[in-house]
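Final report, Chapter 2: Outcomes

The project's central promise was a pipeline that accepts a single protein chain and returns its three-dimensional structure in a standardized token representation, suitable for archiving and comparison. That pipeline is now operational. To close this chapter, we reproduce one record exactly as it appears in the project archive, with the input sequence first and the structure output second.
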Amino acid sequence: MIEILKLGWYTTIQDLGRLGSQSFGVPISGAMDLNAFQWANKLLNNNSSAACLEMTSKGPELKFHEPSFIALTGAIMPAFLNSKPVKMYKPVEVKKGDVLKFSSVTLGCRTYLAILGGLQSEKVLGSRSQYKGVTQEDRIVKENLLLFNRNAFTPKGAGVKTKTTDYKDVNLKVYQGPEYHLLNSHSQNEFKTKQFTISPSNNRMGYRLNEKILQQLPEIWTAPTLPGTVQLTPDGTLIILMRDAQVTGGYPRILQLSDNALNLLAQKSTKDVVKFELITPQE
């Protein structure tokens, strides 16, 4: 069991997501940065869909009541186990009574904490991903203990090196969306050359951008959307849908982020700069 001593800023339980329920209007959810999430589980030889903690901006303070192993990946969020620094991208042994504390991120936005065997929270529609209206809680709360599977596997302590500077990259590789052809040539060129900044209105559902594309497009029938869909609203605002976004929408779908671009955007926050790099499906 893991006791939550302090909550941090915004910490949720996430896995690969709630696939197969979109026809009922249920968002996919799941880890925002699937690449970092999957590395956390690989380091512990966990099942690829084992539930982890996704910690945004500043993590919680946790007390372990059973021994196990953990792994930290994603954003650089300084962590201290009994006041000693914890290395990222490496299995770390925790013992009964150990306390793990986190500081604020210094690079990126979201850090993942995997535990050997995976977290054992409630499972709804095949997923443990927390989402308001689907699971009982939309984030971890101090009143609950975090349960995990005891696993006989013992990590050997091997780590992996990653290019954390990738989180500084501003280029988001995107494909043309279904309504991209409705843009005039000037607007299409703006997407290729303009820099955009992330507005304070950003969360697991979507990111709004401050700069606008001032072209009014005809309304469309409500149509399917995916995480990574870039919508253009009537006033020119761009909304990039994220993991908790609705499964349909009525705004023109101008662009679609690639998988890697969606993971990269998940590590960005308010005032960060992004640029769109248009690629073809072959690329």
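Archive annotation: Helices lie at 34-43, 185-193, 259-265.
This record, like all others produced under the grant, will remain available to the consortium after the project formally closes.
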